[in-house]
Design a protein that fits this description.
single chain, mainly beta, 130 residues, Immunoglobulin-like, five-stranded antiparallel beta sheet
């Protein structure tokens, strides 16, 4: 199985500074026309992660055909966030998100970059978005 780990992460509106959340992109299956990739997000900090905003860049010559268990960011074509009900406790992973890309060379894996992470102390509730 093919796997790719992206280690770029960020806190709130700061530039990436440490590996708060990592994303593993793994080829789940493929056909002649498309490839399905599973995205696995892992919380690497001692806080509860309330929101993860990330960018999905597909290889040149391919198209992002569909995605699941992630929400598109309005006004962008390649930025998404995890669903509102997904909260990651320290060490926890979320592996229900994924993308389908028009058939690419198996060496060409979509690149997922974490752009923003919102977190709170593990004992606190995540703030409600307005």
């Amino acid at each position: 199985m093919l796997a790719f780990v992206c280690q770029l992460v960020a806190t709130a509106s700061q530039k990436p500074s440490k590996n708060e959340v990592t994303v593993t992109v793994e080829l789940a299956n493929s056909t002649e026309s498309c490839s399905n990739y599973k995205l696995e997000f892992t919380n690497n900090i001692f806080k509860k992660v309330c929101q993860v905003v990330f960018q999905v860049k597909v290889p040149s010559g391919t198209t992002l055909e569909k995605y699941w268990t992630m929400k598109p960011i309005n006004g962008t074509s390649d930025q998404f966030e995890l669903p509102d009900d997904v909260q990651l406790l320290p060490g926890q992973t979320f592996d229900q998100a994924g993308v389908t890309v028009s058939r690419a060379d198996e060496e060409q894996v979509p690149k997922v970059t974490v752009l923003k992470v919102k977190s709170v102390l593990s004992t606190k509730a995540c703030p409600k978005e307005e």
